[in-house]
């Protein structure tokens, strides 16, 4: 296993799942190569990509001679092999709280409003469906944060929960979800968005982002 080889992240600029991994890699100072897979052009279904990743999804991470699908598995591997700048608390209960928030986002919100689901709906219904799913899911997360939040999702340190929450908020803004009733979420978004690891991971700063959407 060559841990000196530069990790490769197959990504798409607007994928919230890919953004979770970008944030974690950035936060831990891991230099990596991004390789864009354009979902709108169907590149995730190409023979070249499905040969690498049979699931045909992004992200896909090649690291330390291993290849991983599923963003949460990637986050756990990055944390376990690069323990500096922890993204999981040392306390078992706090770790469980982090994982519960991660699950609420990655299992209960994001899969129900991703592109595969939206494409199964009439175009006229897609935005409304996405907004409803995101809003109801974030309401649950907000209640969780009432018990766990400090400066960030669980206490005062950045965790995997923040890595997952902030990209989900990209979609919330895209579908005009009113975040006014989620004060904990709004405060965490403001703090996290001020950190370089999160700023660099934003979809508008990715090299495959269309020029007209790039951040200035």
From TrEMBL:
Q: In the Enzyme Commission scheme, what number(s) does this protein have? A: 5.2.1.2
Which EC class, in a word? isomerase
Q: Which domain of life is it from?
A: Eukaryota
What keywords sit in the KW lines?
Answer: Isomerase
Query: What is this protein called in UniProt?
Result: Glutathione S-transferase zeta-1
What species does this protein belong to? Answer: Kickxella alabastrina
List the top taxonomic levels of the source. Eukaryota, Fungi, Fungi incertae sedis, Zoopagomycota, Kickxellomycotina
């Amino acid at each position: 296993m060559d841990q000196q080889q530069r990790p490769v992240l197959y990504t798409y600029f607007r994928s919230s799942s890919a953004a979770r991994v970008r944030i974690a890699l950035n936060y831990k100072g891991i230099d990596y190569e991004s390789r864009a897979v354009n979902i709108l052009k169907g590149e995730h279904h190409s023979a070249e990509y499905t040969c690498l990743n049979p699931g045909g999804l992004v992200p896909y991470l090649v690291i330390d001679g291993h290849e991983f699908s599923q963003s949460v598995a990637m986050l756990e591997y990055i944390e376990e092999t690069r323990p500096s700048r922890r993204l999981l608390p040392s306390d078992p209960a706090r770790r469980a709280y982090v994982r519960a928030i991660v699950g609420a986002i990655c299992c209960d919100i994001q899969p129900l409003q991703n592109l595969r689901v939206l494409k199964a709906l009439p175009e006229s219904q897609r935005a409304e469906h996405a907004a409803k799913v995101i809003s109801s899911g974030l309401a649950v997360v907000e209640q969780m944060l009432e018990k766990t939040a400090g400066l960030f999702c669980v206490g005062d340190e950045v965790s995997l929960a923040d890595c997952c929450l902030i990209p989900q908020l990209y979609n919330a803004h895209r579908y005009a979800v009113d975040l006014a009733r989620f004060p904990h979420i709004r405060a965490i978004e403001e703090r996290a968005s001020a950190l370089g690891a999160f700023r660099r991971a934003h979809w508008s700063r990715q090299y495959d982002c269309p020029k007209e959407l790039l951040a200035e």
